[in-house]
Amino acid sequence: MTASSHHSPTGDGSLQTDQCNRHRPLWSFVIPCLNEEAFLRVTLRSIHDFVPQQIPYEIILADHGSVDASTVIAIEEKARVIVQPAVSLGTLRNLGAAAARGDVLFFLDADISLSEEWTSNIIGAVEKLSTATPVLSGSMALPSPDSGWVGRIWETHRPSSGIVKTLSGGHMLILKRHFDAVDGFPAEADSGEDEGLSRRIWAAGGKVLADPGLRVVHRGASSSVREFFFRHFWHGLGDAKSWSRLRGSRTALAGLAFLLIHVLAGTAIVSGALTVAVGLVAVSVTLPLALSIRRLGGFRADAGFPLLALYWLYLWARGLAVILAPLGLARRERRVTDGVPYRSA
Fold it and tell me: What angle, rounded to 10 degrees, do the helices at 301-324 and 250-270 form?
């Protein structure tokens, strides 16, 4: 039986429940959105379908200024909509959480769908949140069956079980009192806000848990090499907004070092120092290779070489963004970056 058959949606985005369910904690799903009409309705209906029947819930769409039908779809699917176009992504998520009336917050991206396996395991996952210190839980999203090789390789091979340093903002859950206690997402963050929340949880003496039983599907995974590159270039522009952001981002610093090694290798080639150039090229391969091995837990030919190539592109995208943004040669568009739609991930 699906949730839509035993919950009664109301126009304000919350769901009415019968008398016997009123003691249940309210769950609040907070979804950041910007022009996500291609994915949003399926995401919202997956919430209606897969929230356990005994749980009252509400859906809050935190919209970043969509010009498509996203907000209309949200209202049709009984979500409550708040619109704040001129804020950072971290602030947008915080505003959605502030509007939530629930005891448990679920942060879900607009292109992430829940599943039957999620339903089977979510009650136990929520129970694990009730500790004295903050617990942030969630799971890495798996690519949809029709994803191309880029999405399958990049989305599938990630740390997905047990205690982890950080979780993706695509699917996270936390008690509202714990979220408020750590001041939520970094308000200034336009990307990497999920990593920032994870750091705040650890700093507060809490922990971050990846629960593979909470299966969700990422239907907006990069479908091409071009989209993959510009998506991470867009995220890199967020790291380049300030010196403090750049200094605090290990990804940005790694991308910058990676790019500079290639520049030095090119300079060595031009100057005739071929031995130095070869050495620098070898060094440049080491970082994406190490990242690939760490993610895979070893090196496998079937996934290792494609993942190595994607990490090479990933580091180039992050490094170029850090170099070009301060020079005024790249600007972080909110809606479209070189033809690649903005995603709320």
Answer: 90
Q: Round to the nearest angstrom and report the end-to-end CA distance of the chain.
A: 30
Place of tokens 């994607």: 310
Contact 169, 110 (CB under 8 A): no
Q: Which of 83, 66, 340, 90 is nearest to 221 (CA)?
A: 340
- Tell me if 27 sits within 8 A of 94, measured CB to CB: no
18 near 96, Cβ under 8 Å? no
What DSSP letter does each residue of 116-174 carry, written as one string? HHHHHHHHHHHHTT-SSS-EEEE-PPEEPTT--HHHHHHHHSS--SEE-S---TTEEEE
- Long-range CB contact pairs, 326-330, < 8 A, 24+: 326/240, 330/233, 330/237
Average pLDDT, the chain: 83
Residues 223-235 have a mean pLDDT of: 86
Q: How far is CA 39 from the centre of its chain?
A: 15
Question: Greatest CA span in the chain, whole angstroms?
Answer: 81
- pTM of the full predicted structure? 0.78
What one-letter code names the amino acid at 185?
F
User: 205 in the Ramachandran plot: left (φ > 0), alpha (ψ -120 to 50) or beta?
Assistant: left
What is the spatial distance between Cα 275 and Cα 261, in angstroms, rounded to a whole number?
A: 14
Token digits for 131?
Answer: 């500790």
Q: Are 162 and 210 in contact (CB under 8 A)?
A: yes
**Least confident segment among 6-10, 124-128, 137-141, 146-150:** 6-10
Residue burial 151-168, b: 16+ Cβ < 10 Å; e: rest: bbbbbbbeeeeeebebbb
- CA dist 75 and 321 (Å) reads 36
User: Which domains can be identified in the chain, with CATH numbers?
Assistant: 3-218 (3.90.550.10), 225-341 (no CATH)
Sequence-ordered list of residues with C-beta below 8 angstroms from that of 153, at least 6 positions apart, any chain: 303, 306, 307, 310
